[in-house]
Every structure is written in structure tokens, then in C-alpha cells.
Amino acid sequence: MKTGTKIILLVIGMCILLYTQCSTDTYIGRWIKWRASDILDHQKFPKHHFSASKEPFYFIASPQSDFGLKEVTFRGQKKKRLQDIVPMSGTTAFLFIKNDSLLYEQYANGYDRASINTSFSTAKSITSLLVGKAIDDGYIESEEDRIIRYLPELKKVDPQYDQLQISHILDMRSGIQFKDHDLPWGDKPKAYYKPKLRDRIMELPMTAPPNSSFHYNSYNPILLGMLLENTTGQTPAAYFEHHIWNKLGMEYAGSWSMDSEGSGMTKMESGLNLMAIDFAKFGRLVLQKGQWNDQQLISEKWINESTAIDPDHKLNEFGDDLYYENFWWLHSKDGNTPYIISATGHLGQYLYIFPQKNIIIVRMGKKQGDVDSWTTIFKELSGY
What we know:
This protein has 384 residues and is of the alpha+beta class. The chain contains 12 helices and 16 strands. The strands form 4 sheets. An 8-stranded mixed beta sheet has the order 2-6-5-16-15-14-13-12, with helices on both faces. A 4-stranded antiparallel beta sheet has the order 1-8-9-7, covered by helices on one side. Strands 3-4 form a two-stranded antiparallel sheet. A hairpin with a 2-residue loop joins strand 3 and strand 4 (78-81).
């Protein structure tokens, strides 16, 4: 056997040995064995389980037989029927709801109404609702409070934490370090796979002054999870279960992933696992200004603040009409009122709310799909 071949076989053997010896209880083990995140990640992490409601809420079933025949922009100038785009784009669920009526519901790629979808970053927007609820309940005085009021140990990590407000974190303007790449020393996989997320937060310096610029950062919702733990005395998942999940008439059971069994930290940045039809209920909650069946679950004040356009938060690098506020993406044509309120996640998980038209769209998928823009498709279906 040639020397070159022996070296190649030796390297392959060493890689196999390394792989088999890696434990998914460690960060490196997870990075090597789990690698790229996917929609089945709810099967990998330990989780906090939520029960289905004994009195589920159902949207009014009003299917429009021709809705799937609507032609929307597929790529470039090319149009395709919605019902054809769904299966070919890796979509698992597509829902269109208007005035509480479920006008269109399509599942594909091995999924159906009772299939679990991982939320990925759409969970950040639900984290915003939880922070608002904690303010409503008096656990947190104001989003303008400095984070060290509740987590004073952060000041020992970096003195600049003294100037960091909760609102800066919610608006992705914290200035906290976040190396946005997928290599093992990057913060993107560390925020996702670290089995002790609290410890990771306590290692992070500030790399920019708070509120100086927008930088999408998955550590921000994790830090707010720590804030919720310290102020409510509960895990964020338990607080969410008691004050939001159990109130929304969820048709199916769900869960929120944790970083590890030993740590038990709720994965605020990504790990909400549920069915698409139940995910739509968060859209309804926002449409109704935090009210559900005559009960004010989240204050109208918080919903209004979270969906108010701040001209200083315009994201010109992402689009002409795009803003970011309290972990929500906002689209506004006039710079005053949003016509789209959205939560978005990896692989094309979308919750789109069109407040003026009382429309909710949910798209979930195994991949982003070979379309130019889901936003364009949603706008066309909604009449924009």
C-alpha cells in the first residue's frame, strides 16, 4: 500500500475514532455530531413539555377551494400556483387566516396538522411577549431599566454592562460580542449548542457601546431568559406555560427545548416546538393587542410599544421599509404604522401578521425553499 494511501486511511480512522468518542453532552461533541441545525432538532435537546388544552380554540374552518390556485412570484418574473410551490419548496405547513377564518391549510413533505415544527428564531418574538408579561406582573419595573439592576454580576464581566438597558437587548442593539459564523469558535453555534448557556453569557464582553448599532445576536434572548429566571423565580418555559400557553387553547401538546438536563436553561433564542396551527395563535394574540377571550394576557401597552415604528431603528441594509423593535420585524411604508409584523426563523419559519387586514400567515419548512422571497408571496396573497 502506498504511503499516501496509508496516511489518508489513518486520517479517516482518526476522524471516525474522534466522532465515536464525542459526547453530545459537550459543546464540541454536539458541533461534530449534530452539525447543521434542522427542523428535527426538537428530538435532540431535552425539553419542558406543555399539555394540549382541554378546551382548544379552533379557527373557523372556511377553506377556499381556489386559494391554492393563486399565482404568486416564484423566481424573477416567473409565477407559480401556491399549491405547487408548497411541496417543491420544502414547506411543511402553510396557513392563511383572515378574520379568524382558516381560508387555506396545506401540509407537505411528510408533515400534517399534528406534526411538530421547531420554531428557531421565531422564539425570540415569543420571548418579547414574556418580557412584556413580566413587566405587566411587576417582576420587572421597565424595559428602560439597566440589566445590572437584576443581574449585577454582569458588571464584573465588562464595565459597559452598566449602561446596557433591557430595551437595547430587545432591539438587538446590545453591543454584546457575537461572532456570526458556524465554525466551532464562532458564537452562532455556541449560542445554539452550548450545554451551559448561563456560563457562556458570563464570558461575553461588549464589543460596541450599547444602543450604538443593530447587530442580530442570539445571546440577547438568552440573557433575557436569565433575567426572567431571576425576576420571576421560574424557568422562562414554566412562566410561559402558566401565563400564555395555557391561556391560548392550544390544540396540541408542545415543548420548549433546554440547553441540557443538568443546566435546564430554556433555549429562548430558538427552541419552541409546536404545531403550525397553534403557532398561528400567537399571531391572533398580537392582532388582538394582547387580549384573548376577554382576558388581557399581555398589556395593550406592551403590544403597542413592540409594534411602534422608531425611525432610528430603520434597517436600510435589509430593506427600504424594514424596522426592528422588541424582537419583532416591522414593515412600514410611511414610517409611522406597520403593515406587517413578523417573526422569522432559520430554514424559513415565518409568522406574518397584517394588522390592517386582520390576516395571519404561517409558513414552516425543512428549508428556506427555492423562492425569491416568501415576504413577496405573503404580500401578494394579502393584497399588497
